[in-house]
Design a protein that fits this description.
The structure is a homodimer of 350-residue chains. The first copy, chain A, is 50% helix and 8% strand. Chain A contains 15 helices and five strands. The first copy, chain A, has helices at residues 6-10, 17-29, 39-51, 84-95, 99-107, 146-165, 181-192, 196-199, 208-225, 232-239, 242-256, 266-278, 295-304, 320-338, 342-345, and strands spanning 62-69, 110-117, 170-176, 261-263, 286-288. At the A-B interface, helix 4, helix 5 and helix 14 of A face helix 4, helix 5 and helix 14 of B.
C-alpha cells in the first residue's frame, strides 16, 4: 500500500502467547470465583498479550484524539445541521466546553483536536494538518484521491505516535464532522457486506423522510463506486471521510506500538474496519468503548468480533463513549496487578 | 415501624420539581444534539431533582461500604464455598487485596467494611457492629428476629450517615457473605412476586444439581414463612440476611440525606426492594450500577424501575459493579455543570 508506513504496519502482529497463558492462569488464582468478572477477565488477558507481559501496565495516562473534517455529501441533505458547526465545535473542544471535555476531565484524559479537513475552520491548527477543506461529494465522484486518503491515514498514525512518545499509555478515538455518519455507514456496508438500510441511522437527529433519503444516497454511492474491501484505501477514498481515514491511521499507529486503543462510536467502528482490512491483527489492540445507538456500529462491532463495554444509547460521538469506558479498562487491568491470590491472602477455595 | 428512625424515613420524599425542570431545559441548550447522551440525560435530571438544585453537585468523594454476614441456610448446601471464606474475605478487604479494593483505587473511592454478622471473624470490627454470628437457617425458622433485622437496618443507616457526615457525596453498596445469593433470591421472590425459579441463580459457581436444590430451598422457605411485602421488616427477618438488612438501611440513610446511592448486584437489589417497601421514594436516590449475571437482579431492577449503567456479566459482588459505574454517574452530572450552551459557545443549531 503505497504511502503507508510499511515498517509500522509490519509490527502489528499476534498476541504474546506466554503472556496470555500467564494472565489466564493468574485470573484463576485471584481471590474471586473464576469467571466472576465476566467480560473483564478476557479483556485483561488480551491486554496482557498485547503488552507481552503479565500483569500488563495499568493504563494511567489516557489521551483522547478528536479528528475533525467535513463532507461534500452534506450538499445532498443528509443531516439537519449546518456545516459551520464542525468548525464551531472544534473551537468548543479547544475552549473546553464540549461533553468530551467534561468526560475527559472526569477520567483524567488529555484532549487533542486535529483538523484534517474542516470546511469552515475558525481556528488555525497547530501544526497545520488540514488535507483539504472537506471531502468531495461522493455522489458525484470519489470523496478523496488515493493520495489524500493515504495522507489522512499517515496523519492519524503520526498523532498516535506523538501521543505515545509523550507517555500516553491508552489512546481513545474521537471525531467531529457534520454529516459524518453518512460516510461511516457507507464504509460499514462496504467492509461488512451489510445492506445500506441495515447500517444507516438517524445520526444526530434525522427524521423518517431524511433517513430514507440518506439510505438512498449511501446505496447509490455504493452502486457507483463498488468499493472493495480487498483494496481498503481505495474504498476509503471513494466513500469515506478525512476524519475516518485519520482514525484508521490512529488505530493502526496505536496497534503498531502495542498500545490499547478505545473505539468510540460508529465513526470509529467504520475506521476500525478499514484498519482491520489493512492489518488484520490491529483488532487485537482495539477495545470497543461503547455501543452507539447507530445501527451500523453494532454491525461493525460484530464484524470486528468486539463486545462493547458501555451500552447506554449514546449517539454523540466526540469520543464520549470511549471516555466512559476508560476506567473500566483500567479496572480490568488493575485486577491482574493488584488483587491477592487465594494463597497470598489465606482465603479458602471451594 | 418500631425501632427505625422515623424522622429520617419521613425526609425521604419526591424530587424537587423546579430543579428537574431546570435540568431538563438545560440539557436542551447544551452543545450536543438533544437526547444524544441517552440514559445519562435522564440520570442527570433525576440527580438534580434529588439534590434540589441545577446543576447538582458533581459527586467527587465516593465511599464504598461493604457489609458482611453469614447465613444459617449455608448448612443446606446452597453453595460450594466454605463459610470461613466470609471472614477471610473481610480480612482481604481490610488488607486491600480484593477486586473491590482495586476497582475502588481506580475511581478514588474509600472502602469501609462492616461486620454485621460474620460467623467466623478473623478481625475485630471497630466499632463492633456484629448483631449475631450469622443468621439462623431459614428452612427451620425465621433467619432473624424482628429486633435483629431492625438493628441491622439501623446499623446500615448509621454507616450511611457517618460517611455523609465525613464529606462523602455518593455512596456505593458492597456485600460479602458466602451463601448470600440464597436470601437475596428469597427476598426478590417475596417482594416482586416472581417465582423462585425465575430469581435463583448460580451465585459464585453452583452446578445444575445444586441450582435445583437451591431453588427448592428457597421455594420451601417462601411456603413456610409466606413473607409479605406489606410487612417488609418481618419479611426481611424471615428470609433475609444481616448484610441485606444493613444494606436496606444504608440505602434508606443515603436517600434520607438526598445523596445518590449506587447499587451493586443482586444482594443490593434485594435490599433495595426492602428499602422501597419501607419508603417508596427511596428509589429516587438509587442508581443501578450494573446488571448482575444473577437472574434475580434483573427481576428486581425491573420492579424498581431502574436501568443499570454497566452490563458486563459480572457476578462477584463486593461492590465491584457499583464501582465501575461511579465515573459514569459523575460524568453524567458534569455535563450539567461544565458543558457550554449553544449561545455561550457560538455554535449554530439545526
Amino acid at each position: 500500500m503505497p504511502g503507508l508506513d510499511i515498517t509500522a504496519l509490519e509490527r502489528i502482529g499476534p498476541l504474546d502467547a506466554d503472556a496470555v497463558v500467564a494472565a489466564r492462569e493468574r485470573q484463576q488464582r485471584l481471590t474471586k470465583p473464576a469467571g466472576s468478572l465476566g467480560a473483564l477477565e478476557e479483556l485483561s488477558v488480551r491486554l496482557a498479550g498485547l503488552a507481552g507481559q503479565c500483569p500488563p501496565p495499568v493504563p494511567q495516562r489516557p489521551a483522547l484524539a478528536i479528528f475533525a473534517g467535513d463532507h461534500g455529501v452534506h450538499a445532498q441533505g443528509v443531516t439537519p445541521w449546518p456545516q459551520e458547526v464542525t468548525g464551531q465545535m472544534v473551537a468548543n473542544f479547544v475552549a473546553g466546553g464540549a461533553v468530551a471535555n467534561a468526560f475527559a476531565a472526569q477520567v483524567g484524559a488529555t484532549v487533542t483536536v486535529t483538523d484534517v479537513g474542516v470546511a469552515h475552520p475558525l481556528l488555525a491548527g497547530e501544526p497545520d494538518r488540514r488535507i483539504r477543506a472537506g471531502t468531495r461529494d461522493f455522489t458525484l465522484g470519489p470523496a478523496m484521491t488515493l493520495g489524500e486518503a493515504t495522507a489522512a491515514i499517515a496523519t492519524g498514525m503520526a498523532v498516535a505516535n506523538e501521543l505515545i512518545d509523550a507517555g500516553h499509555d491508552c489512546l481513545l478515538t474521537g471525531d467531529m464532522g457534520i454529516g459524518n455518519t453518512t460516510p461511516a455507514a457507507a464504509l460499514i456496508a462496504a467492509f461488512t457486506g451489510a445492506a445500506p438500510a441495515a447500517v444507516t441511522g438517524r445520526g444526530t437527529g434525522v427524521d423518517d423522510v431524511m433517513l430514507a433519503h440518506k439510505t438512498e444516497v449511501i446505496a447509490g454511492a455504493l452502486l457507483r463506486h463498488r468499493p472493495d474491501r480487498a483494496d481498503p484505501v481505495a474504498a476509503l477514498a471513494a466513500v469515506g471521510g478525512l476524519e475516518h481515514a485519520a482514525l484508521a491511521g490512529f488505530i493502526l499507529g496505536s496497534a503498531s506500538r502495542r498500545v490499547p486503543v478505545l473505539l468510540d462510536g460508529v465513526i470509529a467502528c467504520s475506521a476500525a474496519l478499514v484498519a482491520q482490512a489493512i492489518a488484520p491483527d490491529s483488532v487485537l489492540a482495539m477495545v470497543a468503548g461503547h455501543r452507539s445507538a447507530e445501527p451500523g456500529a453494532t454491525v461493525a462491532l460484530r464484524h470486528l468480533g468486539l463486545e462493547p463495554l458501555v451500552d447506554l444509547g449514546l449517539r454523540l460521538g466526540e469520543g464520549t463513549g470511549a471516555l466512559l469506558a476508560f476506567p473500566i479498562v483500567a479496572s480490568a487491568v488493575r485486577v491482574l496487578r493488584d488483587v491477592a491470590t487465594f494463597d497470598s491472602a489465606g482465603v479458602a477455595e471451594k
